[in-house]
Specification:
Blueprint (H helix, E strand, L loop, with lengths): L1 E5 L6 E5 L4 E5 L2 H7 L4 E7 L3 E5 L3 E6 L5 E6 L6 E6 L4 E5 L14 E2 L22 H4 L4
Parallel strand pairs: 3-10
Antiparallel strand pairs: 1-2, 2-5, 3-4, 4-9, 6-7, 7-8
The chain binds zinc ion.
């Protein structure tokens, strides 16, 4: 499926021509920081399928709670978070907010809910995991 997205100011634009691997919301503290308070809503895509059609994202080199490196890409002009690149995972979580059309991107799971503030409503009709979801921790090869 063809999807398009970009940052708030339009300096960065991208396209994705591949089926999504899934969607989710991550409530870890780092994601709360990068999302501005809420969880990070993300859609997972295979590595190599994002085509940047305008601009060059800046990259912040971070580490996840596993200790693995994770690159966080954002617009150098407006700061919109775009996606992250986990070192040892076969997928890239793209921020749902970066897509032009988010209508079909409802989270299929909530992870790191142990870090979510008590006031954040999490629906009870989707799977939740206190930390990383087992399927994401050990994705099929
Ligand atoms: Zn921008």
């Amino acid at each position: 499926m063809h999807r398009e997205g970009g940052c708030a100011c339009g300096a960065i634009r991208f396209t994705i021509d591949a089926p999504l691997l899934g969607t989710g919301a991550c409530h870890c503290r780092n994601c709360q920081k990068f999302a501005g308070g809420g969880p990070n809503y993300v859609a997972l895509v295979p590595k190599g399928v994002i085509t940047i059609t305008r601009g060059t994202p800046h990259e912040f080199h971070d580490r996840g709670d596993s200790g693995d490196k994770v690159i966080r890409a954002f617009c150098p002009d407006c700061g919109t978070p775009l996606w992250s690149v986990p070192e040892h995972k076969p997928f890239i979580p793209v921020k749902v907010g970066a897509f032009d059309d988010t209508a079909d991107l409802a989270p299929q799971m909530h992870i790191y809910t142990a870090s979510a503030p008590a006031w954040h409503a999490i629906p009870d009709n989707v799977p939740t995991f206190a930390q990383m979801a087992p399927a994401i921790l050990a994705p099929p090869e």
